[in-house]
Amino acid sequence: MNISQSSLSLWQSCPRKFQHQLLDGLHLPSNPNHQMELGSRFHLLMQQRELGLDITDLAASDLELHTWLRNFEHNPPLIISGDRYPEHLRTHKPSFSESYILTAIYDLLILGNHQAQILDWKAHQKPIAPDILRSHWQTRLYLYILAATTNYLPEQLSFSYWFANTGTTVAIAYTRQDYQETEQELSQILDEMVAAEKSSEYAQLPKDSLACTKCEFKYRCERSSRINLGAISTFPEVAI
């Protein structure tokens, strides 16, 4: 089973919801809003730009897309020199797990002579605080996989988030301690996943949890006496 940053975030939010969504395949049809669709189009625009394709029509299709591209041209993140890989898929099978493969898709990965850099495009209205970004599984897993699958030292890696609305960058450094702490936590989480799969018992949140009141699975988990098909699950975690 492939484990992504969203899988890890979901597991830590609620193992039972992890079971329902990823193992049982139960979820409500997605209903992307305009901002989500615009974010997807901006990622496509940046990928095509990186590949040297003509992005004139795509950038002109929406005023906000055009504004974001101008923000990038006027306030780009600091980018190292090296081989560039847009929308790059990378996987890693950790030695401490026989059942899971860690996976990441990098918006832009740059591999230089003595440094490597991950860049991620964010179409949020406002930048996210560095402390939140640093602790989020996207940052931790992407850097961990890159360190585990290359010959770079952890200190030679960095992660830069670029926020399209403001043209600002949040740069995050990496250390050997970060790598070791992430590996230890990943080992523990994957062991918990294996144990839950073997016992077929996935832990639930407390019945008075706020997350349960807004979860589409609250009826299945006996957190509600009726089914609410319009429920949207939200956890007290910043989605990045």
How far is the first residue's CA from the last residue's CA? 23 Å
Q: How does CATH name the architecture of one domain?
A: Alpha-Beta Complex
Kindly provide the name of the CATH class of one domain: Alpha Beta
Can you tell me the residue ranges where pLDDT is under 50 for at least 5 consecutive residues? 227-238
Helix content: 40-55%
Question: Major beta sheet, specifics?
Answer: 6 strands, mixed
Which descriptor suits the 3D outline?
globular
Q: What structural class results from the helix and strand content?
A: alpha/beta
Radius of gyration (Å): 19 Å
CATH fold description of one domain: Lambda Exonuclease, Chain A
- How many β strands by DSSP? 6
The SSE string, one letter per element, is EHHHHHEEEHHEEHH
Number of helices: 9
Percentage beta strand:
15-25%
Average per-residue pLDDT, rounded, comes to: 90
Fold and architecture overview:
With 240 residues, the chain is an alpha/beta fold. The chain has a domain of 161 residues: Lambda Exonuclease, Chain A (Alpha-Beta Complex). The protein has nine helices and six strands. Strands 1, 2, 3, 4, 5 and 6 form a six-stranded mixed sheet that branches. The longest helix is centred in the last third of the chain and has 24 residues.
